[in-house]
Specification:
6 helices, about 15% strand, alpha+beta, single chain, 2 domains
């Protein structure tokens, strides 16, 4: 895992007469990568424009400036890491997702129709270990699949989960979800 921020020990610097120093190790994204994304975007936009105008050459009078302006927006967008998806992880996740959806629906229906609803609602906090972005968003949305759970709030690097039954083993279930999402995004 690449370290993006490193704090230098204040006591060691103070002993030498210096103050606290923060260094940032994350270099700006490669210019070549941005140009590659820009050219890919230009090709995609040009293809869309051509399809919408029946591939007429005279439509390029307006289309070419629009395509170039749209492709140039790549340089204004913040750089986000490209997520690599694992085909094996995706197949495993889809199968697991379908089973968990059914399991969650059956559990909630059973609780709704049970004469004595076994409910002990409450909140639990769980630290987030997946990187920010698509993996974390997918994890937070998938938490809702577990029987009687809902991602209620994200605070820093933790999620607050609302549960219908706080005696359930939430940590084990969330660890499984994290492993599935990590496999999907090839983070293992």
């Amino acid at each position: 895992m690449r370290q993006t921020e490193r704090l230098i020990d204040n006591t060691a610097l103070s002993a030498r007469g210096g103050g606290s120093v923060v260094t940032i190790d994350s270099p700006p994204p490669a210019v070549a990568g941005r140009w590659r994304r820009c050219l890919t975007m230009a090709a995609a936009l040009l293809l869309i424009w051509a399809a919408l105008t029946d591939f007429r050459a005279d439509a390029l009078v307006f289309g070419l400036p629009a395509v170039l302006a749209g492709a140039a927006l790549v340089f204004l967008m913040p750089f986000s890491p490209g997520w690599r998806l694992s085909p094996r992880g995706a197949l495993g996740f889809v199968w697991w997702f379908a089973l968990q959806s059914v399991r969650g629906a059956v559990d909630v229906a059973w609780r709704a129709f049970a004469p004595r609803m076994p409910l002990r609602p409450g909140f639990r906090r769980h630290p987030l270990t997946l990187p920010a972005g698509a993996p974390r968003v997918l994890f937070l949305n998938t938490v809702t699949l577990l029987p009687g759970t809902l991602s209620a709030e994200v605070t820093g690097d933790a999620v607050i989960v609302h549960m219908l039954d706080t005696s359930a083993d939430l940590e084990a279930d969330l660890t499984v979800i994290e492993a599935r999402v990590a496999a999907l995004f090839a983070l293992n």
